[in-house]
Request: fold
Amino acid sequence: MSLESLVRATLGIKDHRVVRVTGGVGGLRVELDTARRRRLPCGSCGRRYRVRDRLPERAWRHVPLWGVRVLLMYRPARVKCRDCGIREEAIPWGSGKSPLSEPLVVVLATWSRLLAWDVVGRLFGVSWSTVRVAVERAVAYGQAQRRDDELSHLGIDEISRRKGHIYHTQVYDLARKRLVWSGPDRDGDSLRRFFTWLGPERCARIQGICCDMWAPYVDVIREMCPNAVLVFDKFHIVSHLLKAVNDVRKAEARELSKIHPELLKGTRYIWLKNHGNLTSRQEVRLSILEKLNLKTNRAYLLKELFSMLWNCDSRKKAETFFTWWFWQATHSRLEPMRRFAWMVRRHLDGVLAWFDVPIDNGAVEAMNNNAKAISHRARGYRTAKTFILAMMHGMGKLPLPQTVHTFS
Reply:
């Protein structure tokens, strides 16, 4: 296969032809021209008209061939459209004024989902900013093609972008396990921007939203999505419970530090694990500690009882069970457990909403780990805009622009 045929195959051109391919110090130079007596499509509406005139020659960076730089050289034509006026033709291998060919954008964007952007730049002999431009074009195309009117269940959480308590609000589609929106900060204004972007019609279609008990999020959700069922994430609730149990253990360990300093040493995960996940050695030690009248053991038993809440058959039974458990916790003389019980009591409607819409943020935590991996492999991002771009590209499941040839 000649180089001219190879270029035609990778570009999929029909209205243009390859004049010549020349090589030099700068790489391969591919000269293109229009096919004779061809009507060309208008860049605005796509209707075909005769060529009116030609513009100065432009260069597009193309996919490297065997590591050799490839430039596409072409003088764009203009057509006189009856509806749009004088317009530049729709160039099949390019978009707008970008100096990157569409196949190169797809290649760079595909590898950018797997590797750090600077690594992709070194592999293809381009700069980091060139890779960023390719990702930006791919994300813009994907967001234009993606349909967000089918959102029904959302998961909302925050993720740290960099040190110094700099957070981003992440909104996930729980049904399709994808990132829908990412915005700076973790306040109500940040989440309100998402719902404003979504629009009232699509907000009205949302059936359930899962988040933690962060008050700014809760207020905005109830304001912007009054029809959606607000479910407080049970994994966040359990994390508060485990913190309460650990606070009881630490306080009791301080009390026993002078009498029995070794009694509770190294037992943290014995009390925090589910009983079925304990190792044989941990089970033996737990059986010994259970025979002692420890405050930590009472907190542990309350924790194990609380887990039965999610096994109830209905919301009504769960509410009855919690009323009984609440009395046990508030009369346990364990202050951290009392605080946890009252916290759940204040948010009980959102906690029990899980029985109406059984969603949780387990998938969100997994996707947050993927987001952290994307950030870590790039050693962080300086600006919020670039961070959002990387998140949407790596986790938004956005379609890439279509090319005739598949580059592997």
The first helix runs from residue 3 to 11. The chain has a mean pLDDT of 90.
